[in-house]
Q: What sequence folds into this?
């Protein structure tokens, strides 16, 4: 079973629209971490946010906001007033602590296209 | 400049010819990891290392080897590459330590083609 599910494979929006990228995770650990990364067309992976399992506060950073809900095992990402530069593949990731270290699981990614 | 470097960036090889992809970081990070990225599958962790001489399997370790003899280097070894190992490979490093995970810094990627 997938540890991290990003059900939206591709999303297209018109510039200035808001868009929410969904992420659902699965873990039995009580301590875990969640991340979002952006991969623009140039290919590099850019860190966006880190959340630990004990901090359910939502976070806002400029046009970006994240909604963490343990009750539904979701960590959704919203871009407000989208711009063409937001076009990228976005990955959600989960980190669990295994016996010898921290294993990471990434979702399959959501490809976002913002149309001018 | 803080960075993760990988070499080579592009590699075309033939089935069965051993190869090594190097990875080096200059941030004194304890944690290093290798991933492969394939269309529709996202990133999948191959191996990770919590510290020197401490390595462990990720989700897809078959066909790969790693070693961590020095803190800054974490090479990925394909002893006998096969076409199904054609992929985009990323190395990453992080301040993560046991039970605490932090952001990973990724290298630029190595595109490997095995014919």
A:
């Amino acid at each position: 079973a997938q540890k991290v599910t990003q059900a939206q494979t591709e999303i297209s929006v018109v510039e200035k629209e808001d868009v929410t990228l969904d992420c659902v995770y699965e873990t039995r650990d009580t301590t875990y971490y969640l991340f979002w990364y952006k991969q623009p067309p140039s290919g590099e992976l850019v860190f966006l946010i880190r959340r630990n399992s004990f901090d359910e506060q939502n976070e806002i950073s400029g046009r970006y906001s994240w909604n963490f809900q343990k009750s539904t095992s979701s960590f959704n990402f919203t871009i407000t007033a989208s711009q063409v530069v937001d076009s990228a593949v976005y990955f959600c990731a989960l980190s669990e602590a295994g016996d010898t270290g921290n294993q990471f699981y990434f979702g399959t990614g959501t490809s976002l296209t913002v149309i001018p | 400049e803080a960075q993760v470097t990988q070499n080579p960036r592009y590699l075309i090889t033939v089935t069965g010819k051993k190869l090594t992809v190097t990875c080096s970081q200059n941030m004194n990070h304890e944690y290093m990891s290798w991933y492969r990225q394939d269309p529709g599958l996202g990133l999948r962790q191959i191996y990770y290392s919590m510290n020197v001489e401490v390595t462990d399997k990720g989700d897809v370790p078959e066909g790969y080897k790693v070693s961590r003899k020095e803190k800054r280097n974490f090479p990925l070894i394909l002893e006998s590459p096969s076409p199904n190992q054609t992929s985009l490979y990323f190395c990453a490093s992080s301040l993560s330590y046991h039970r605490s995970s932090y952001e990973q810094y990724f290298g630029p990627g190595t595109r490997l083609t095995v014919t």
Remarks:
- The mean pLDDT of chain A is 94.
- Chain A touches chain B through 25 residues (CB under 8 Å).
- The first strand of chain A starts at residue 4 and ends at 5.
- DSSP finds no helices and twelve strands in chain A.
